């Protein structure tokens, strides 16, 4: 009888320790997220299942074009792409991103832009001053985010600049659907 009690206690310890480790990884290192809505098309689709790396920004700042998850409200997280970084001025004109007056290409939008009919717009023209807050440059500790589906995205054009401390992490890996399994770009 004593042997069975020791074996049961041994299994209980393994289960408890495993649960603590799993909780720690989930809380501090990686987290699953499910894409909700069309705002990141064509890069991400509604109901894509992703892994978010929560440790990425512990030792570094967001990079341009990272796909990040952030707390938009107390109860809602959004997933968007970082377009503008602290100290920069952002503008869009005639489907071209300008950062501090220099044009930048957005390769993840090239297929959509190539399909545009003459006279139509994918990203309507705007400047940083047009956004909530009316900034002349992105202040320290903030980023400008946009959805890849520019005509159907609630992003910095509507909600303003995002404080970096509200970023949960960077979306790094898609695990569902299986036919799109892999790293996210």
TrEMBL record:
Q: What is a single Pfam family found in this protein's UniProt entry? A: Peptidase_S26
Q: Name one GO molecular function term.
A: signal peptidase activity
Q: Which keywords fit this entry according to its UniProt record?
A: Hydrolase, Membrane, Protease, Transmembrane, Transmembrane helix
What's the protein name?
Answer: Signal peptidase I
Q: List GO terms (cellular component aspect).
A: plasma membrane
Where's the Peptidase S26 domain? 9-176
Tell me, which GO biological process terms does this entry list? signal peptide processing
- Similarity field: Belongs to the peptidase S26 family.
**Active site positions, chain numbering:** 39, 80
Q: What PANTHER family does this protein's entry cite? A: SIGNAL PEPTIDASE I
User: What does the organism's lineage look like at the top?
Assistant: Bacteria, Bacillati, Bacillota, Bacilli, Bacillales
Spans traversing the lipid bilayer? 12-35
The domain of life is Bacteria
Secreted is among the record's keywords:
no
Which compartments is it annotated to reside in? Cell membrane; Membrane
- Family matches, as InterPro entries: LexA/Signal_pep-like_sf (IPR036286), Pept_S26A_signal_pept_1 (IPR000223), Pept_S26A_signal_pept_1_CS (IPR019758), Pept_S26A_signal_pept_1_Lys-AS (IPR019757), Peptidase_S26 (IPR019533)
Q: What's its membrane topology?
A: Single-pass type II membrane protein
List the catalysed reactions: Cleavage of hydrophobic, N-terminal signal or leader sequences from secreted and periplasmic proteins
Q: What CDD domains does the database record attribute to this sequence? A: S26_SPase_I (cd06530)
EC identifiers of the protein = 3.4.21.89
